[in-house]
Amino acid sequence: MTMSTYDRLNKTSRVFRTVVQALILSVCISATGCAMFSDRSTGLSAWKPPWSKKSVTDDPTIDNVRGPMQRVLQTAMWKKERESNFIKPGVGATEYKKAQELFDAKNYKEAEKEFKAIVKKFKNDPIREDAQFMIAECQFARKRYSWAQDSYDQLLVDFPSTRHLDQTTKRMFTIARHWLQDPSIISGSEVQQVNLEEPGSDSPELPDDGKKRSSRWALVPNLFDRSRPVFDTENRALEALKSIWLHDPTGPLADDALMLTASHYLQKGRYMDADRTFGLLREEYPKSPHLKDAFMLGTHVKLMSYQGPRYDATVLDDAGNLKETTLRMFPNADKQRLKTELQKIEYAKAKREWETVQYWMRRSKPKSAAVYCNLLIEHYPTSPFANQARDLLAELGRDNTNHLWANYAVPGKKSAEKEPEPSRFSLPGIPGFGSDEPKAVPAPSKAPAEQAPAEDTGLEPPARLRLDGLDEPIRRIPSDGEPEPARIQL
């Protein structure tokens, strides 16, 4: 049975596609370097794209967590054992000593292989903790930072209270700063004020430290720099900072990691994320040296997320409360600037109330507009919108303002018509009721001086209690043994 011409062509095209795909794959491998694959036996960490499986730091636990003092003692004891010559031989000590000698000789590639063999061989022994830490140290020394980050994270997950915690957090902080290209923490006094009259029209300029930084899209691969991940370097740096304050919240770098994260969010215009991070810093680290800047910049990012008078005003209330708290907590703060910003916040709140009045006027609901005019005048009586609200109340007239609890209309612009007086009860025979003019009441005749009546206070004097036949009032209550007292008369 012979093969048809169509089958031969179809088979030839399949073979051609297979050859082309193999050539493309080989070119990609040669461009990125074969060492990237041969150096690691635990996976391709540097190739981890943003949509890959979640990091080991996304689900932190508190299992086997120890206090800061216990961690310090563990670290000191481990250093003492390393320097001592009287260490008891433990499980895997011979292999560990061999790998340590390679590390001291700066043969990091071979030392990394030996430490990986120790981790694989002694899975349930204490030496695994030290070997896992030294794997990350070898990768850090070779400037394979993306792989070192994963190794440090794995150490923190397997041993949350490891004795290498201080050194691990320092390494992670160094890696994050390298990936973010040595960022500087923003100070609260350097940020300009937000334009609340026209929110979103322009953004205040942030201070520039003079460093030139290159930005890269998250999906653009990095094929040449081995010290950075292949994808999404910035978010990997934020992940490293997150790991610091999650696993070592009482450490010396926890508040620094939060402040650096919030500053990065602020520079990138991610104001909601910056607000959340500044809030966490204020709540969890009240003794941090970054606390003042966290308050100042916290109000700034809240106001930057304000979208205008037609949107929710919760951020205005929160920003005002933060500024008032800043005035109370930090006497050395720029009080004049804070008071000016508080006045601008009050102005923005009044403008929002006036927008509500205008909304009801456009809906042809003058009575609802009158209600919000009253609220505006009561809450913000010194704002320029309060005068406009008074003028509007005067123009609406009595028909649209008779339901208000108080009428704050401008007196000079009230209606010229004389408003009728409220009806009065008409009771016959009582002067002053039932007629427009009150009737004259004759003055009482003046009594002689010797018979001048006592001044009328509206109450009758109390009657005096007297005994029959006596002019003196009762002075005490008789006891049980005494005879029955005389009859009392009023």
From TrEMBL:
It holds the Pfam family YfiO. Keywords: Signal. Residues 236-392 form the Outer membrane lipoprotein BamD-like domain. Residues 194-213, 412-490 are annotated as: Disordered. Residues 440-449 have a biased composition (Low complexity). Gene3D superfamilies: Tetratricopeptide repeat domain. It comes from the Bacteria. Residues 463-479 have a biased composition (Basic and acidic residues). The keyword Flavoprotein does not apply. This is Outer membrane protein assembly factor BamD. It comes from Gimesia chilikensis. The gene is bamD_2.
